[in-house]
Amino acid sequence: MRGERAGVLISGFFGFNNLGDEAVLAGMVQSLRPRLPGVPLIVLSGDPAATRAVHGVEAIDRLDARSILRAMRRARLFLSGGGSLLQDATSVRSALYYLGLLWIAAALVPRTMIYASGIGPLRRAPVRALAGRLIARLDAVSVRDADSATLVRALAPRATPVLAADPAVLLLAAAPQRADELLAPLGLAGQPLLGVAVRPWGNNAFAEPLGRALRDAAERLGARVVALPFHPVLDLPLSRALAASSGGDVIEQPLDPGDALALIGRMRVLVGLRLHALLFAAIAGTPPVGLAYDPKVASLMRELGVGEALPLDAGAEESVSAIERAWSSGGVLRTTLAAVREELRGRAAGAAELAAGLYAG
Question: Considering the entire predicted model, what is its pTM?
C-alpha cells in the first residue's frame, strides 16, 4: 500500500498573511520541488485559495478534519515545517494542535518529519511530556537552531536532531527598482533608512521607550524611520504608533517576501521583534538589532554573530547605543552576515535533502 501513496503533506502557520510564515512556505516549496519533481505538495492552510494562488501547491483547510485525514491516507511524507510550531508561549491550544497533527500523522503516514523548525519554549510539563513521546516516534527531526536541538535531546534522549536553518534563507530579493517603487510615495527613495519591525507583546510597554529610541537615533544619524508590518492584521496599529512617535513612516502596502527583502536591503539598520524581520536583514546584509521578546530572537542573534539581542525592557538610551553601534559597524557586520548567510543556506538545503530521502526511502 505504501508504494501506492504519493504526495507530501505540509503543516505550518500558513494562509494567515504573515510574511515570515509565507516566506517559510515559499522556501520549502522552492527547495522541495527540484528534489521531488512531479510529487504533489499539499499544504494545510488558513486560506487554501490564497495558498494555492501564491505558492502553486495543493491546499486544504487546516481545520477540515475529514480533508486532513484523506490527505494523510494519500501522502507518503508528512512535514511539520517551519516557524515555531511546537511551543506553548503563545498558547497551549496552538501546541496541542500541531502535536495532535503529528500524533495522527505518525499513525497514518509512512514517513514523518519535523522540518527546520524552532522548538520551544515548552513550559508546561504535560506538553513537554507529550512532545517528547511524539518526537521519539518520528522518522527525522531537523531544527533551525542549536537551542532547539538541545531541547529536542532533552525531550527525547534517543532522538538525533539535525541542525538545519529556516527555509526563508533560500529566498531572493525583488529587483532593486521594486524597493524604489515602494519608497517613492513616502519621499524616502535614496534616503538613509532605519527600519523597525515589531509585533504586539504583552501590554506593549516596550513601545514607548522604543519609539523614543528610534526618534533619537534617527536624529543623531540623519536617518528616516520606516516601519514594516510583517503580519499587518496584528502589527499595523503598533507600527503606526511607533512611526508617529519617532517621526517616521509606515509601509502600508501588503508585501510579499521578495519585496520585503528588497526594502530591508535598502536599510542601514533593522530593529526587530519579529524573528523573520531579523532573518530577512541577515539575508539582505543589513545589520539587525534584535529585541528579545522570545528566546528564539536571542538564539538567532547569537547565531548571526552580530551581537547580543537587547532585552525587551531595554531603556531608550540602551537601544540608541545599540542602533548607533550597528550603524557605524555596518561594513564589518555585512561581511559577517554574508558568511553566515551562505552557511545557513547550505543547512536549509540539507533539510530538503533529508525530506527527499525519506520520501524515496
Answer: 0.94
Exposed, middle or buried, 9 (CB in 10 Å: 0-12/13-18/19+)? Answer: buried
CB atoms within 10 A of CB 328: 14
Start-to-end CA distance of the chain, whole Å, equals 14
Hey, what domains does the chain have and what are their CATH numbers? Answer: 2-164 (3.40.50.11930), 176-342 (3.40.50.2000)
Which pLDDT band, with edges at 50, 70 and 90, does 2 fall under?
Answer: very low
Residue 216 grid cell: 533619537
Q: Report d(CA 130, CA 114) in Å as an integer.
A: 15
CA-to-CA distance for 277 and 166, rounded, in angstroms?
12
User: Is 273 within 8 Å of 198 (Cβ atoms)?
Assistant: yes
Neighbours of 26 (CB within 10 A): 21
Q: Could you give the CA distance from residue 28 to residue 32 in angstroms, rounded to a whole number?
A: 6
